[in-house]
Q: What sequence folds into this?
């Protein structure tokens, strides 16, 4: 939960509320880390994975008109830039 809150740039209390709601909807499940019982791991359920895949497909479809106009080199560069933005330290 701590790592997820840091990754998303949220307070732990805010993230906790989001996880509570997602858990009630059956999208995630919580589990204990066998190495450290203080740690709470969050996992996507099958329903959560299906929703994530659906969102991925819909976003790709929505962006296709713009990204299809790019040549392959520009598309590759866009992917590199998006990766850098989403994986940069906080």
A:
């Amino acid at each position: 939960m701590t790592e997820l809150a840091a990754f998303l740039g949220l307070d732990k209390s805010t993230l906790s509320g989001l996880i509570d709601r997602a858990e009630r909807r059956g999208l995630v499940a919580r589990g204990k880390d066998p190495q450290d019982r203080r740690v709470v791991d969050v996992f996507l359920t099958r329903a959560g994975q299906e929703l994530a895949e659906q969102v991925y497909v819909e976003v790709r479809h929505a962006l296709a008109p713009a990204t299809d106009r790019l040549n392959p080199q520009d598309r590759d560069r866009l992917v590199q830039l998006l990766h850098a933005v989403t994986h940069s330290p906080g």
